[in-house]
Amino acid sequence: MAESTGGAPDEAADYPESWEADVVLRDGSTTHVRPIRPEDADALQAFHVGQSEASIVFRFFAPLERLGDRDLARFTRVDHRDRVALVAVTGDDAIIGVARYDKVAPDEAEVAFNIADAHHGRGLGSVLLEHLAAAARERGIRRFTADVLPQNGRMIAVFREAGYSLQQRLEDGVVTVGFDIDPTDRSLAVMMAREHAAEARSVQALLTARSVLVLSSPNAEPGSLDDRRAERVLADLVGGVPSAEDPAHRTGAVTAAGGDERGVEVHVVGRPAPDGADPRPTVHHWERLDDVPGPVDLAVLALPAAEAVVAVRALGRLGVKGVVVLSGGYAEQGPTGLALQRALLRAAHAAGLRVVGPRSYGLLAHAAGGLLNASLTEDPPPPGRIGLFCQSASTAVSILGSVRRRHLGLAHLVSAGNRADVSGNDLMQFWQDDDATDVVALYLESIGNPRKFSRVARRLAAAKPVVVVTAGRSGHVVPPGHAVRPTQASRQTLQEVMRRSGVVLVDNVHQMLEVSQLFALQPLPPGRRAAVVASSSAAASLVSEALAAAGFTVARAPAILHEDADDAKVERTFAAVYADPDVEVVVTMHVPTVGPRDDRVAQALARHAAGSGRTSVACLLGLHGATPALTAPDADGALRTVPAYTTPEDAVLALDQAARYAAWRAADRGRLVAPEGIHARTARRRIAGWLDEAGSRASLDLTHEQVAELLGLAGVEVFPTVGVHDADEAVAAADRLGWPVALKSTVPALRHRSDLGGVRLDVHDEAELRADVDQVLALAAGREPEPGRAPLEVQAMAPHGVACVIRSAEDPLFGPVLGFGLGGDTTDLLGDVAWAVPPLTDVDVSDMVRAPRSSPRLFGYRGVPPLDVAALEDVLARVAVLSDQLPELLHLELNPVVVAERGAYVLGATARVGVAGTRADGPRRALPA
Q: The pTM is what?
């Protein structure tokens, strides 16, 4: 990886701030990546002289003891276009890694990397390669080359393991490596696997902490909110946890607690010890932060925002892995607070820390080492199998109250507050590999990166149920302090993202916990054949109606178990129900009208349900959640609990969601669509050329010819269209295209409107065409024309079929959003459109075509022959891939796409292109800014 050290320094161009990013490394710690600056000369020299001779030789092919002034100027003064360098830095701006490229051809650059010896093995090389490749693609570079000594196997491995297709040759004792840097399925898969491992490890470090620093301000007023927070979390860290042996917790919802007699070691700064000495052996008080001995795993801050930023900078030396910020005063209070929040993140990430908060309620975790309660709750739930994530502290209080009322156990609780750093995506990455978590529940007040959420949730939901509540079903709600990009996407888009990800989307916290307790306590429903046991025929009817409305089939006559039934009758009833091979789901509703609850029913139900494999729920007087009354051991002695619900509607809602999830999990989710003949790189170059020709750096509406060329590069053919101004031109166009033809007005009010006379089809001869031209022009008189277009278009007739519309738009929040519906006013009026966010699988595409309520028209509706849906799906798949690979494609509309018995024909298309923005989930790893 030799590089000439001569040459005059380049003048620094505009600094590309968008290339700055905080990243999570392989070991779960963090670092900051940014473009190099001229003032980095001293740091670069220090980095160089700190390297071993071998590392210097690998980089420069010669043992350079120091970099000369000309070298330093050349390496630190770059133009950020043809010469680019990125550095990874620590909290004090010490350089620990350098990656650079120099352009050697119009779309090719030579690259070089150098990682500090002390930081090998942390994944810095792969992170810098991702970020350098992303910067290069932004500058039009599509290929990297590098000269590497054969002995430098580590660097060659970085290129190979990144998932790129390498070409290598050995010449004069040097290996020349070359590879295209456009993302491939393999390179993206490698990046996502690395991202998953790193983020999961960073969260694991937070939830398994056994040494915690509580930091408060010595100037805090006694009784102030920060003072009370610090006092509460300190008491919680050294306090106990309800025992799983408590009779109230002897259910299938509670697991055995881990044990560590030593508990959590707590260091305290800013709060004096009681009476000069703390009697608790695991609590250590220190006057100053500098006095605290390391290592410390986790820090909890109850400090004013400005003090917190200063404190975080000092935590790196203690080996702290993460910091929980309980206090407010950040982005929720406006620009000044936002600046403090960004400074907090920058300080934390540069020091290698993840941040939970600000305005967090804290976190708690039941692990093998015992309870970690770094939260504000003095009454933590017992250990269980549910992982719970929420954001605001007030929401955490409400959810914990509901958890306690249901007697549920938790594996973890994390409150992210403003969600400045650690998010639900991070927790899902961790929970995917966590054997202690069976069910994931998320209350999301905002979603900062829906594309990443979709792919992470989809992977997690394939193994564990994920139950989600969003604050507003659309994702358009943005609480104060949350960093969320604006969106223009349909309010249905987020729901579709959730559904296609296998997520169980519910309306509120009540439903979230009702569904989660079913997942935690019962097996998934193998089907929808249900049995009903009830205390009266009226109750049986109520349950049966709820089941039928939710799509269940009542497989046998309801079993009526009157409240005066004797023990033998109770036993025979449940034995018969659970012995029926046609029964997959059992709903029991027993409400005595005289006297207390009959526990014989609960006990018999619990015994027969345990280990039966049938999903069972109950509505019994006075019971809710996980209760000992509905708990019994299975054949292996493990406790199994039937969840209790207040109403049969709640019980059936939970069953319905569980059945939907079971069906999604069992179904074939398909493979990512990858139609042949899509030339995204060429399309990107053509768009860049059109923008340059137009002198526009914002956006450009493409001409009909340009749209046809762009779609042609995706394998989509647009029916030829000729713009005309009068009858003579129309006849000439028809002669050239071939009769019969279609005549269309380009006036927006009449375009695609055959009902208003703006479209004339099956025009067979000159006389008919001339008459139609006169009529359509007369209709258009006085209406606003479309600028720059001829008033009429002539097009060859396509085969008859059903008109459809395919749209794609680049959204700041979601990225490419794809829409599909059948043509016509009814579709627009009723919102009968299916939405999806690429990338899509073949199953996604198939579902999308079938999602609109009007889609039966494509499948032989009312005697009409079935149409070529496969051809339509091919067009939709090609648009999905094109929009996913081209963020420059700001808007695309195919209208109409006529689906005939054979083929799908694109008769009209418009597109707008522009400079590509940075997607929230691009091909490089980065934490929220």
A: 0.90
Single-letter residue type at 120: H
Reported as a single tens digit per residue, the pLDDT across 52-67 is 999 999 999 999 999 9
For residue 740, is the peptide bond before it cis, meaning its omega torsion is within 30 degrees of 0?
yes
DSSP helix/strand/coil, 346: helix
Angle at the Cα of 355 from the Cα atoms of 351 and 359, rounded to 5 degrees: 140
Give the model confidence (pLDDT) of 883-918 as tens digits. 999 999 999 999 999 999 999 999 999 999 998 877
More confident residue, 854 or 482: 854
- Residue 822 forms beta bridges with which residues? 804
Q: In Å, what is the CA distance from 36 to each residue of 89, 339, 722?
A: 10, 23, 53
Closest CA to 891 of 498, 488, 492, 475: 488
* Backbone phi and psi for residue 145, each to the nearest 5 degrees, phi listed first: -130, 155
743-748: average pLDDT: 89
Q: Is the pLDDT of residue 324 over 90?
A: yes
Parallel, antiparallel, or unpaired: how do β-strands 504-506 and 466-470 relate? parallel
Rounded distance between C-alpha atoms, residue 575 and residue 213, angstroms: 56
Show Cβ contacts of residue 529 under 8 Å, excluding neighbours closer than 6 positions: 552, 553, 555, 582, 583, 584, 585
Mean pLDDT of the 386-395 span: 96
Q: If DSSP codes are grouped into helix, strand and coil, which group holds residue 912?
A: strand
Q: Which pLDDT belongs to residue 196?
A: 96
Of 852, 863, 859, nearest to 822 (Cα)? 852
Q: In 746-855, which ranges are E strands?
A: 759-763, 792-796, 802-811, 815-822, 834-836
Contacts 24+ apart (CB under 8 A), 162-171: 162/126, 162/129, 162/130, 162/187, 162/190, 162/191, 163/187, 163/188, 163/189, 163/190, 163/191
How far is the C-alpha of 169 from the C-alpha of 896, rounded, in Å? 51
Confirm if 404 and 246 have CB atoms less than 8 A apart. no
3-state secondary structure of 594: coil
Secondary structure of 485-496 in the HEC alphabet?
Answer: CCCCCCCCHHHH
Give yes or no for residue 481 having a pLDDT over 70.
Answer: no
Q: What span, in angstroms and rounded, lies between the C-alpha atoms of 20 and 346?
A: 11
pLDDT the model gives residue 478: 67
Report the run of H or E that residue 304 belongs to, with start and end: none
DSSP 272: P
Residues 706, 693: Cα–Cα separation, whole Å: 13
pLDDT digit string, tens, across residues 815-871:
999 999 999 877 878 889 999 999 999 999 999 999 999 999 999 888 778 999 999
pLDDT digits (tens, 9 = 90+) for 270-302: 988 877 667 777 899 999 999 999 899 999 999
Beta-carbon contacts of residue 202 (< 8 Å; ≥ 6 apart): 24, 28, 29, 30, 321, 322, 354, 426
